[in-house]
Design goal:
alpha/beta; Rossmann fold; 2 domains; six-stranded parallel beta sheet; disordered C terminus
Length: 466
């Protein structure tokens, strides 16, 4: 099938490239000419594992990028809208959705065949039917159901492993205004064989996306709330607590042969310094506002966001237990992206942490394998040092804050072990073993009497070396 994908960002580029890999002819429409040039050279403008390889395998065969929306839609059987829908604090910004819908409608006006327009972007329930459809009808002069169809096909892609998620989906949700539109979308996903496909109306498809992300965000904030409580209780560690919780057979089923299954959703039952990215914060907030405007209270989701907003402060509180004078301290912040495997820093807990540390007079050194330029742009004139080298970042550090669980940061204990003066390590992701460093604090780890002597000795050594 010939498919036009409007938008060359995370969702559009990954979706377009993967659909091309599955055999469809795909045209990606992107207004940024530099991005178009990169894509057409087989170079991904975003950091996403496996994407470069797919681009290079399909370019010149099934995929091409262009700035010309009209030409792309005109030669396609189906158009996917995969543009941004940022949240401004009150509502999601649908201006890009509107612009794409108008342009597509103007092109449909010139076509004499049935065409399906699919919203891939994350939008609140009613957007496809109440905004996109009227704009298409107005600017095409054509009628929904007769001349064109409108569908909603939410994505469930995790940044960092989006290619794998698209190529190996756990479900495919297909919303449509009628069976004819849904059948064309079924054809798009025919190469995905036995994957469970959910066929619903557009509003339901839109709500499924928000409900799914809100559930995952709720699991994280629940875990963080339990972790914060554990932090106030002696000899209780949230890692042990949640490990015990996850052994409930309703969370980790036991097969007839005695083998236990550990579903991936359990990975969201883990305490840390908070979630970020382009999805969870935006989607939960958008759903909260959507409910409030319909006079439906959303107290659970209100609490999810409140807990998340407070989590970076937990790392600062752990640091202040040691009476650190920031004006005389070097602080290494390990990790700037909101998660490993991506250069996305949107809503990353590292940003408020770095801002606070720098404004408090600390000598701050930030380390991340791929997200330095994005952070430099976001933080602007805030005075911090950036490096991709963990060794350079931690050299002579008084405090090391582990914010993103990049695999290479697991080498930290071995690097600092020989040092005479041991830094305070604050583990915001609980990826290190507490006993692997002399001075350790971790989210959700209450005062551990078993390590009291170790801590005392380490403090004495640090004081004598100062």
């Amino acid at each position: 099938m010939r498919i036009a994908v409007i938008g060359g960002g995370y969702v559009g580029l990954v979706s377009g490239a993967c659909l091309a890999e599955k055999g469809h002819e795909v045209l990606i429409v992107e207004l940024n000419e530099d991005k178009v040039c990169q894509i057409n050279k087989g170079i991904s403008p975003i950091h996403e594992e496996g994407l470069d390889d797919i681009l290079q395998s399909v370019l010149g065969n099934n995929l091409q990028a262009t700035t010309n929306l009209e030409d792309a839609v005109a030669v396609s059987d189906l158009t996917m809208i995969a543009v941004g829908t940022p949240f401004d604090g009150d509502e999601i910004d649908l201006s890009q959705i509107e612009g794409a819908s108008i342009a597509i409608g103007q092109t449909l006006k010139k076509l004499n065949r049935y065409h399906v327009v699919v919203v891939k972007s994350t939008v609140v329930p009613g957007t496809s039917d109440d905004l996109v459809t009227p704009l298409l009808e107005k600017h095409s002069g054509k009628k929904l159901g007769e001349d064109f169809g409108v569908g909603m096909n939410p994505e469930f892609l995790r940044e960092g492993c989006a290619v794998s998620d698209f190529m190996n989906p756990d479900r495919i949700v297909i919303g449509g205004n009628d069976d004819r539109a849904r059948e064309r979308m079924r054809d798009v996903y025919a190469p995905f064989g036995s994957t469970d496909k959910v066929f619903v109306n557009n509003r339901t498809a839109e709500m499924i996306k928000y409900a799914s992300n809100s559930l995952l965000a709720t699991l994280i904030s629940f875990s963080n709330e339990i972790g914060n409580l554990c932090n106030a209780v002696s000899d209780v560690d949230v890692v042990d607590v949640l490990a015990g919780v996850k052994l409930d057979k309703r969370l980790s089923p036991i097969m007839d042969n005695g083998q236990r299954i550990t579903p991936e959703i359990n990975s969201y039952l883990a305490a840390g310094c908070g979630f970020g990215g382009s999805c969870f914060p935006k989607d939960v907030n958008a759903l909260r506002v959507y409910g409030q405007r319909r006079n439906v209270a959303m107290p659970v989701l209100d609490a999810v966001m409140e807990t998340n907003a407070d989590q970076p402060q937990q790392m600062l509180a752990l640091m202040q237990k040691h009476n650190i004078n920031l004006k005389r301290s070097k602080v290494a912040v390990l990790g700037l992206a909101f998660k490993p495997g991506t250069d996305d820093i949107r809503e990353s807990p590292a940003l408020p942490l770095v801002t606070h540390l720098a404004s408090s007079g600390a000598d701050v050194v930030c380390c991340d394998p791929v997200a330095i330029e994005e952070t430099r742009h976001a933080l602007g004139d805030i005075e911090v040092t950036y490096t991709k080298s963990m060794l350079d970042a931690i050299e002579d550090a008084d405090v090391i804050m582990l914010v993103t669980s990049w695999p290479e940061f697991a080498d930290l204990p071995a690097l600092i072990a020989p040092w005479k003066k041991q830094p305070l390590v604050i583990d915001g992701r609980r990826m290190l073993k507490a006993e692997s460093v002399a001075l350790y604090e971790g989210i959700g780890r209450g005062n551990q009497s078993i390590n009291a002597d170790v801590k005392s000795n380490a403090l004495d050594q640090a004081a004598s070396a100062a």
